[in-house]
Fold each of these.
Amino acid sequence: PSSILWLRRDLRRGDLPALGAAHDAADGSADAADTTDGQGEVAVVFVLDPTLWRGAGDARRAWLAESIKAADAAYDGRLCVREGDPVTVLPQLAAELGAGSVHVSRETTPAGRRRDGKVAAALARTGVQWVETGSPYAVGPGSVVNGEGTPYKVFTPFSRAWRDYGWPSPATEPAGLRLAQVRSDQSALTTLKQAREAPDLPSLPEAGEEAALRRWADFRDRALADYGTDRDRADLDGVSRLSPYLKIGAVHPRTLLADLADGRRGPGDGAERFATELAWREFYADVLWHHPRSAWQDLRTPLTGMDYDDAGGAVEAWRQGRTGYPVVDAAMRQLLHEGWMHNRMRMVTASFLTKDLHVWWPLGARHFLRHLIDGDIASNNHGWQWVAGTGTDASPYFRVFNPVTQGLRFDPHGDYVRRYVPELAHLEGKAAHEPWKRPDGYLHGYPQRVVDHAEERREALRRYEAARG
Ligand code: FAD
């Protein structure tokens, strides 16, 4: 083969510009008469990096392993999986195959950028070219800047400029693509198989780009028109649940945006709103691009001197979904059971940890990243900073979500609570949100409230005001 396509956050075959670039490089360097020794073929590889693998929870591992399996099928069983540090694996593979270039979609997270810099340098030492084409975003992070050439700090002007910037049409598969058959590491295949078959896994969605596109088509035709109004309702099936696919790159946002823009959609502001939500994903990636330290540190400094509590028993109750606040518990259990949580509930549970339990947001962000199958450092950690009031364009520090009124508004019939908290299944309708009001509310082993929300709200405001001087 004369080129390598290294898949990372782009486990798909459709709408993948780096595949086109890899094919062009392979095709251009092939001797037209010689098709016997793999010349002109593209070797597609995934590198299982033990450093990243170790940090992932079982659900995340299983989701990745299922997604790799699906990508292998999409590449006609020719996805090569190798195990090890990419800095050594890629140069070795290039030498083994006689490849002249390694092609990727540009990685944009701080750790990914550091790693890619090292891999590119190692390849350069052996004369192998490193080529970045596209990224996991419709607009590459760092591209959208204001009139002065500086990055946007606030979402709304960013999203306007992001739309004006525009994005290319989806890429089509190069004609005459030939895929190389390259041996995988047996140890890597075994590791992936074990991850897929791990005991007590949450129920995961079907993996792969075909499943992602089916999910999109179903959502588009069934729920997109009402998305603007239904997206906040935790009890309804009103959101796309595409985040795990976007995370792994089984589908690219450009594919979805092109479909939204083609004018066939129904009435309502759903399509517009959906594009705006995709823009949040792009905004947070852009913020991380410009401020790599914002991954784990407060982006805004006024709250740097905040007085936080250490994690104690109440935090453990939060992790397990046993705080005594039904909607918080339903959401935290949804996270453990499905590896996913509804957006409104991510805000409610993050507010509960940071403002009712007074814990610094990175502790919660870490718990989410361990369990979410869509766990993404930019969207997750900046989502946490938004709730904590420490991010750029954050929720105001004095906004403290009330877990009861949030439940009553966004799960008005109590269905979401009953789905995940069986101890409350005997409470009808919205009574599920306030079991303490019913004498039999606690009969089924449901815990008492770990804190008093009204009291902790006052305490949070006191601490925030003290920190702001
Ligand atoms: P939909 O409502 O169908 O939206 C479509 C897509 O738009 C999503 O898949 C996602 O890619 C993007 N999107 C929507 N809302 C947001 C948002 N607020 N920020 C960034 N992108 C958004 N999203 C992740 O993908 N990974 C995370 O790790 C993550 N952690 C979060 C943590 C917290 C504390 C908060 C408040 C939000 C977090 N989000 C995260 C954003 C959002 O909750 C999820 O993207 C959304 O719930 C995914 O469900 P969906 O695909 O059905 O979303």
Note: The pocket of flavin-adenine dinucleotide is lined by residues 231, 239-243, 246-247, 277-278, 280-281, 284, 343, 346-347, 350, 368, 372, 374-376, 379-380, 383-384, 387 (CB under 6 Å).
Amino acid sequence: ADALQRATPAFPALEGRHPCFSTTSEGHAAAARLHLPVSPGCNIDCSFCKRDFNRSDQRPGVATRLLSPEDAEAVVERALELCPSLAVVGIAGPGDPLATDHALDTFARIRARWPRLTLCLSTNGLMLPSRIEEIAAVGIETLTVTVNAVDPEIQATITPKIAWQRRRLDGRAAAERLIGNQLEGIALAAALGLTIKVNTVLIPTVNEDHIGDVAAEVAAAGARMINIIPLIPQHRFANLPAPSLMRRYVARAEAERHLRVFHDCQRCRADACGVPGLSDYTAALYGDDLLAE
Ligand code: SF4
Ligand code: SF4
């Protein structure tokens, strides 16, 4: 079934134009993506999140350095020279791209200078309903929303507190608000024609039996694909194991009953550049001149 799926593009308009929405191997290899680490802050507190600045860790939440929107333009310029197949500019951290204005400001600059680049945004979804008009207006085509649970009891363990309208919400209240905004935001984005992928971190003992429910709800809201990301045990979840191969297989099979499953995620850095799993220009991109503030 997988071989058959892979022979037919799931998103014909994005095939060969976005490595993570291309579902054939030819399409995946044809297009590179650049992540711009312009988003400093976050508005929620996930138990597995450890943000850092360094050159070595290969995982989300890590970048060489934070970029201002002006710096980001210079990075795109250089990336287009280094990496001729660059087709997508995404913003996925190091914090949440909708918690501050840097990401949408950066996207507007890029759209004005390089209108042919596909714009891709990754968010925890808390601010999605209130910022969806801006997101559509700036021309973002592909959206990833991280949804780790649709049951508030489970979600409260994963993200015990959030900042909402200048107040702190804890526990169940935080979880209900986050899940509600994520599902509403996905529905609004789908209605505006964005192509939506959901990322779900697979967390042993916490949400591993809940993946089918997440997939069913986000599919009903309008998501088109799901990416099950194995937990990297760190921060408050440092003592949990990483999910076994069998657990990953079962979770993906559960999700596949409701949604197309993305199988090739590399858990990229917030400043990645190249085709995920095939090429990596990040070190070349951040030469010593770009490291100096
Ligand atoms: Fe970290 Fe992203 Fe969660 Fe914010 S939303 S705490 S950046 S994993
Ligand atoms: Fe694609 Fe996964 Fe990398 Fe995001 S983290 S760019 S979905 S491979």
Note: The two ends are 50 Å apart (CA to CA).
